Automatic annotation (TrEMBL):
Residue ranges of every copy of the Aminotransferase class I/classII large domain listed in the record: 45-393
Family annotation (SUPFAM superfamilies): PLP-dependent transferases
Record PANTHER family: CLASS II AMINOTRANSFERASE/8-AMINO-7-OXONONANOATE SYNTHASE
Pathway(s) the chain acts in: Lipid metabolism
Cofactor: pyridoxal 5'-phosphate
Gene3D superfamilies: Aspartate Aminotransferase, domain 1 (3.90.1150.10), Type I PLP-dependent aspartate aminotransferase-like (Major domain) (3.40.640.10)
Record InterPro entries: Aminotrans_II_pyridoxalP_BS, Aminotransferase_I/II_large, AON_synthase_class-II, PyrdxlP-dep_Trfase, PyrdxlP-dep_Trfase_major, PyrdxlP-dep_Trfase_small
Organism (species): Chryseobacterium profundimaris
Stated family: Belongs to the class-II pyridoxal-phosphate-dependent aminotransferase family.
Domain of life: Bacteria
Name this polypeptide is given: Glycine C-acetyltransferase
Entry keyword Transmembrane: no
Keywords from the UniProt entry: Pyridoxal phosphate, Transferase
Length: 424
């Protein structure tokens, strides 16, 4: 019989295999100083493009004050119980009312974390006779929620409406045979490459197929739409989204999340979400701090306008310099280049250590082999000079990449130090 620890030691997993090479640097990098467009990394200042702090709320003085006041009044962890047992407060209910209003839904319910909340929402919405149809590039929280489903599930090709329709036909047959229904799940914004989910086109399919739509709008909430209500508002179909979901981990610069929709459905979810029924309530500083953040989202449209001004400068600057930023139509800014995983690490090291630019880097298997993807998240706090410095640095490292600089370094490293990089 196998000892499961032996298996684990032999196969540390898709990320674990990089632990010896990159921990603390490429993966689990340790940044210091207050969150902002300039942070400290490995003893030097870097321009930081890797925080999902779109609206610069993390260090907004009014937010800091509200959080601190709430913590001083209630302590960090009030209330001490699950919502259903002893953790419900008037402030929780108020935040839910205000969130529902903000995303143009009847009702909302708070979740402790986005990831767990989404897993549980999917679990609570479907029964074994129902069919789930979801975008193949969905976030892990959707994939893991679907894993709990005891019934049929189909994926459709990423943002491909013809593929969705084909799968809706299959799903309709299965659901009719089983006496179940269909739940379609997509993201409002795909966080890695920045495309909006084609919500409008998905909603149009409702006239032909019977299904309910659940949208994870983690990156759309606060950044898209006239009022910041997200990708559905941006595309003019917010009212067609049956269950709207967002985390507080991005525009709200906090933690926690929420779902919103029709009163009756949210009430059902309130009484059936296992991630909430069996877990401690979202704490008071986050709830009161959440009210302050939401107030800023509502009353300071200039913050979102500045985010978009910065996004447009960064994205047009990259495009003018010939960079491939794919088909992003959101603030998420991917920069795609060709190179091996070792070249990617050397390039990122160069960018951080010699140009003082910190971005996230994504490698195979998240993206195809041979591709390097650097992801930049512009925020309302970045300045013109930070954007210009970054563009100049990108130009320089790209010249080095195509000139074979990192390839030469790779060969040298492999030869001199016997360094190996396990190809996956
Ligand atoms: C699209 C998407 N959904 C869900 C989550 C999970 O949210 P949380 O960090 O609140 O668990 C994230 C990451 O924050 C995300 O990017």
């Amino acid at each position: 019989m196998l000892d499961i620890f032996d298996r684990i030691k032999e196969n540390p997993g898709p990320l674990g295999q990089f632990a010896d090479y990159g921990e603390g640097y490429f993966i689990f990098p340790r940044l210091e100083g207050p969150i902002g467009p300039r942070m400290q990394f490995q003893g030097r200042e870097v321009i930081f493009w890797s925080a999902n702090d779109y609206l610069g709320m993390c260090n907004h003085p009014e937010v800091l004050e509200a959080d601190a006041k709430a913590a001083a009044e209630f302590g960090m962890f009030y209330p001490m119980g699950a919502r259903a047992m002893s953790g419900e407060t008037e402030q929780h209910l108020q935040l839910e009312r205000e969130l529902a209003d903000f995303v143009q839904k009847e009702s909302a319910y708070l979740l402790n974390f986005g990831y767990q909340g989404m897993v549980s929402t999917i679990d609570a919405l479907v029964g074994r006779n129902d069919v789930i149809v979801y975008d193949v590039d969905s976030h892990a929280c959707i994939v893991d929620g679907v894993r709990l489903h005891a019934g049929k599930r189909f994926t459709y090709r990423h943002n491909d409406i013809a593929s969705l329709e084909k799968n809706l036909e299959r799903a309709t047959k299965v659901a009719e045979e089983n006496g179940g229904g269909i739940l379609v799940i997509t993201e409002g914004v795909f966080g890695m490459r920045g495309q909006q989910g084609k919500l409008k086109e998905i909603c149009e399919l409702k006239s032909k197929y019977q299904f309910r739509l659940l949208v994870d709008d983690a990156h759309g909430f606060g950044t898209l739409g006239e009022t910041g209500a997200g990708a559905g508002e941006e595309q003019g179909c917010q009212d067609q989204i049956d269950v709207y979901f967002s985390t507080f981990a991005k525009s709200m610069a906090g933690f926690g999340a929420f779902i919103a929709g029709d009163k009756e459905i949210i009430r059902y979810l309130k009484f059936n979400l296992r991630s909430q029924i069996f877990a401690k309530s979202l704490t008071m500083p986050m709830v009161i701090g959440g009210l302050k953040r939401l107030q800023l989202l509502r009353t300071r449209p200039e913050i979102k306008a500045k985010l978009w001004e910065n996004t447009n400068k960064l994205q047009s600057g990259l495009k003018e310099r010939g960079f491939n930023i794919g088909d992003t139509n959101t603030c998420v800014t991917p920069v795609m280049m060709q190179g091996s995983p070792v070249e990617a690490t050397l390039l990122v090291k160069d960018l951080r250590e010699n140009y003082g630019i910190f971005t996230s880097v994504v490698a195979y298997p998240v993206i195809p082999k041979g591709m390097i993807l650097l992801r930049l998240i512009p925020t309302a706090s970045h300045t013109d000079s930070e954007i210009n410095e970054t563009l100049a640095a990108f130009e320089a490292i790209h010249d080095k990449l195509v000139g074979g600089h990192y390839k030469d370094q790779e060969q040298k490293l492999l030869a001199e130090q016997g360094l190996s990089f396990k190809e996956i």
